[in-house]
Write a structure and sequence with these properties.
The complex is a heterodimer of chains A (690) and B (138). Chain A is mainly α. Helix content of chain A is 56%, strand content 3%. In chain A, strands 1-2 form a two-stranded antiparallel ribbon. Chain A has a two-stranded antiparallel ribbon with strand order 3-4. In chain A, strands 5-6 form a two-stranded antiparallel ribbon. In chain A, strand 5 and strand 6 form a beta hairpin. In chain A, helix 3 packs antiparallel against helix 9 and helix 11 packs across helix 14. Chain A starts with 11 loop residues before the first helix and ends with a helix. By secondary structure, chain B is mainly beta. In chain B, strand 6 and strand 7 form a beta hairpin. The radius of gyration of chain B is 15 Å and the shape is globular. The chains are: A mainly alpha (690), B mainly beta (138). The interface between A and B is medium-sized, with 36 and 27 residues. The complex binds FE2/S2 (inorganic) cluster. The site of FE2/S2 (inorganic) cluster has 13 residues of chain B, from loops. Chain A: Component of the ubiquinol-cytochrome c reductase complex (complex III or cytochrome b-c1 complex), which is a respiratory chain that generates an electrochemical potential coupled to ATP synthesis. Chain A: It is a multi-pass membrane protein. Chain A: Pfam families: Cytochrom_B_C, Cytochrom_C1, Cytochrome_B. Chain A: Belongs to the cytochrome b family.
Chain lengths: 690, 138
């Protein structure tokens, strides 16, 4: 397993190097000849998947950093420009953002795997603790990465998380100032987070090396939890484990690609498409999904310091697992009670995650407290107790015995899973009912959009009509500052020619300068110019519109959403429903009513809108029948206007959507074939090992 | 990694004119990147703030200690929730004061914590009255 390798390269040049630096021997003994237990199942491929994800994140991250500007005024825009103008920038950004989530999916599976099969037990304690360190570093890296786009959630997430340290008595406040580099989250904070976000992945890579080293010294655990004794118990790493890992990675990439190409925003928050505003806190601050269980623990404790301690404690406790669970039998396969409790614990974690995303009121707070107690009870009571009272089933003598005796003992985990899931289901159902009762506002009706689904395309006619509606109506108050006139002639857009786009641009007056005399002047627009904004600055926009600045519309269909709730967000994953934003925008445009219904009072200067949260909207009814005439004979109705302008705004929010879906299809065809090949190769390689 | 010289310099005192703020209204100004609420309290709000039993509060402090005498109608507080730093919304919640949307802390019309996870009252920034209608913060 370790120690000097007897590997001798045959090539003289390699021999020359090997005598001075035995690197090939190291590689050979670690990844080729390394004996790996015969009975590993697919849960063991997640180590390889994680290494792959780390590689992807570092690679895409380095390229993104070449285009990103870490400045509070420019960061949000620079991310948009990456997505819009950099070659395949949208792909890089999606890969990196979704990649972070996928990294955590894999790490959670990997951790639960370790928990179930007792991979933290003697002699693998250090291996496990290194894993916990990697996990902590990942959380820090993920958090700082989420701050970089400098949207509303980035900013307020950073505020809330850095403020956690202010709970420390006496020195807390100074620590927070030190983290911020100022009196609040601001430009210095962004700069240091960028620097650290670039640094930490390499630290992770370093600890991963230690992790793998420790693994190769202690040897891999396996589903039966008995150490390999003879040659018969193991197979060489290459080709056996290599090909199996390749197949695992290929399958995982299918999931990864599903998000990258078809639902890149499913795991994110719509609020992060609104630029950071230090003056307004969004109504629900939610961290990224992978922190939700810990966030739920934080919030369920009514005392600030205790909440922070509990949250960090929930992670740190993992490092003590080898000593909390002193049972001799490693694998839960042979521990009937531990197995049941393991599944209950999984459900507790998932439910905590669900609660972390809910508003902190009523039943959610109580459920959060109960589950927090369950979480800690698992580590502090259940595991130590089980080690004393549980009677484990006899473990096989050796791995090869276990492989030979493999019978249909599959039913037991199924039963406990079913029980656990039923429990989760009923709890879920309970919480949804109360959620429904508390909301009571209309959900926007779902429309049929030409751009939905895996093969969706924009309707060119609708884009052109929508542009006309924007130009004649919306543009009086709303900017479109991320869209340039040249975009109108780009593939996947409204389908204008370059000359048409130039002619369109020249109808606009654009401010330029200063000229040689030092004066600003106006000139006709050029294709490279961006749509001019109707107001010179936000204050002017605010003053002219009764205190509410009309938002820029470039990203509006991605920046608005409504709550889908359970179970819809689960179905959405399969149906690729991604059109909450457009549905909401179209609904608001048509949701005006002359008179507010009984019992709703609308303040002076606001209007009643059925779909606007809170119902009092500052924008007067923007569209009325016959307001804009279309050249192509489409009906001049509000419904038509709303639909067309929303389609147009979906395009402005994501001009490369068609390219994304097209490439997605090609990638899927490739990945499915690749995974199939890997599967059959793996079968062949393993044919006589099972 | 502490704040650099320019950040510190930008944190110098500012003056705010109070005359445009009508009774029952409030404004938000920024000082050192922090939102400062200046509210022109109504008689009702002042009475409510003074009627509570100070000893029963989570962070006991009398309303008199939180405003300048002779200017009882003016409440000046840093609008940063003492829990985890969100900006509370003025004129919301059940105490005629502030409500924090993040984790549900409620402050009364004197900016004192009444309910929720926040441990302390909204802090009063250093300020003084330069004239009857003008204050200097910082
Ligand atoms: S930040 Fe205000 S309640 Fe948590």
């Amino acid at each position: 397993m370790s120690g000097p390798s007897d590997y001798q390269p045959s090539n003289p040049a390699l021999q020359w190097i090997e005598r001075r630096l035995p690197i090939f021997g190291l590689i050979h003994s670690s990844f080729v000849a390394y004996p790996t237990p015969r009975n590993l199942n697919y849960w063991w491929t997640f180590g390889a998947i994680l290494s792959f994800m780390l590689g992807v994140q570092i690679l895409t991250g380095v390229i993104l950093a070449m285009h990103y500007t870490p400045n509070a005024d420019l960061a949000f825009k620079s991310v948009e420009l990456i997505v819009r103008d950099v070659n395949y920038g949208w792909l890089l950004r999606n890969m990196h953002a979704v990649g972070a989530s996928m990294f955590f999916v894999a790490v959670y599976v990997h951790m639960f795997r370790g928990l179930y099969y007792g991979s933290y037990k003697e002699p693998r304690e250090v291996l496990w603790i290194l894993g916990v360190i990697i996990y902590l570093l990942m959380m820090a890296t993920g958090f700082m990465g989420y701050v970089l786009p400098w949207g509303q959630m980035s900013f307020w997430g950073a505020t809330v998380i850095t403020n956690l340290f202010s709970a420390i008595p006496y020195v807390g406040e100074s620590i927070v100032t030190l983290l911020w580099g100022g009196y609040s989250v601001g430009n210095p904070t962004l700069n240091r987070f960028f620097s650290l976000h670039y640094l930490l992945p390499f630290v992770i890579a370093g600890v991963v090396v230690l992790h793998v080293w420790a693994l190769h010294v202690a040897g891999q655990n396996n589903p039966d939890g008995v150490e390999p004794k003879t040659e018969k118990d193991t197979v060489p790493f290459t080709p056996h484990a290599t090909i199996k890992d390749m197949f695992g990675v290929a399958c995982f990439m299918l999931l990864y690609a599903w998000f990258i190409f078809y639902m890149p925003n499913y795991l994110g928050d719509a609020d992060n498409y609104i630029p950071a505003n230090p003056g307004v806190t969004p109504p629900h601050i939610v961290p990224e999904w992978y922190y939700l269980p810990f966030y739920a623990i934080l919030r369920s404790i009514p005392n600030k310091l205790a909440g922070v301690i509990a949250m960090f404690g929930a992670i740190i406790i993992l490092a003590f697992l080898p000593w909390l669970d002193s049972a001799r039998t490693k694998s839960s396969k042979y521990r009937p009670l531990a197995k049941q409790f393991f599944w209950i614990f999984v459900v507790v974690c998932i439910l905590l995650g669900y609660l972390g995303a809910q508003p902190p009121e009523g039943i959610y707070v109580i459920a959060g407290r109960v589950l927090t107690v369950c979480y800690f009870a698992y580590f502090l009571i259940v595991l130590p107790l089980l080690a004393r009272i549980e009677k484990p089933r006899p473990v096989p003598n050796s791995i090869s015995d276990a492989v030979l005796a493999k019978t249909g003992s599959r039913s037991t985990p199924m039963v406990s899973t079913a029980i656990a899931l039923a429990l989760a289901g009923s709890l879920f159902a309970g919480s949804i009912d109360s959620a429904k009762a508390s909301e009571g506002s209309d959900t926007p009706p779902a429309n049929k959009w030409s751009f939905s689904g895996p093969f969706g395309k924009f309707d060119r006619g609708a884009l052109q009509r929508g542009l006309k509606v924007y130009k004649e109506v919306c543009a009086n108050c709303h900017g479109l500052s991320y869209v340039a006139f040249r975009n109108l002639a780009e593939a996947g857009g409204p389908g204008y020619s370059v000359a048409q786009a130039a002619a369109f641009a020249s109808e606009y007056k654009v401010k330029d300068g200063p000229n040689d005399a030092g004066d600003m002047f106006e000139r006709p627009g050029r294709p490279a110019d961006y749509f001019p904004s109707p107001f010179p600055n936000e204050q002017a926009a605010r003053a002219a519109n009764g205190g509410a600045a009309p938002p820029d519309l470039s990203l509006i269909t991605k920046a608005r959403s409504y709550k889908r709730g359970f179970p819809w967000f689960v179905f959405d994953f399969f149906t690729q429903y991604q059109e909450q934003g457009p549905d909401y925008v179209a609904a608001v445009l048509q949701g005006y009513e002359e008179k507010a219904p009984e019992g709703v009072t609308i303040p002076e200067g606001s209007y009643y809108n059925k779909y606007f949260p809170g119902h009092a909207i500052k924008m007067p009814k923007p569209l009325s029948d016959g307001q804009v005439t279309f050249d192509d004979g489409a009906p001049a109705t509000v419904a038509q206007y709303a639909k067309d302008v929303t389609t147009f705004l979906m395009w402005t929010a994501e001009p490369h959507m068609e390219a994304r879906k097209r490439l997605g299809f090609q990638v899927f065809v490739f990945l499915i074939i690749f995974a199939g090949l890997m599967y059959f190769t793996k079968k062949k390689v393993w044919a006589d090992s099972h | 990694m502490n704040p650099d010289a320019s950040t510190i310099a930008a944190g110098a005192p500012i003056e705010v004119d109070l005359s445009p703020i009508a009774e029952g209204q409030d404004i938000k100004v920024f000082w050192r990147g922090k939102p400062i609420y200046i509210s022109h309290r109504t008689k009702k709000q002042i009475d409510e703030a003074r009627a509570v039993n100070v000893a029963s509060l989570p962070d006991p402090q009398s309303d008199e200690a939180r405003v300048k005498s002779g200017h009882e109608q003016w409440l000046v507080v840093i609008g940063i929730c003492t829990h985890l730093g969100c900006i509370p919304i003025a004129h919301e919640g059940s105490y005629d004061g502030f409500f924090c949307p993040c984790h549900g802390s409620q402050y009364d019309s004197s900016g004192r914590i009444r309910q929720g996870p926040a441990p302390a009252n909204l802090p009063v920034p250093p300020y003084q009255f330069v004239s009857d209608t003008k204050i200097q913060i910082g």
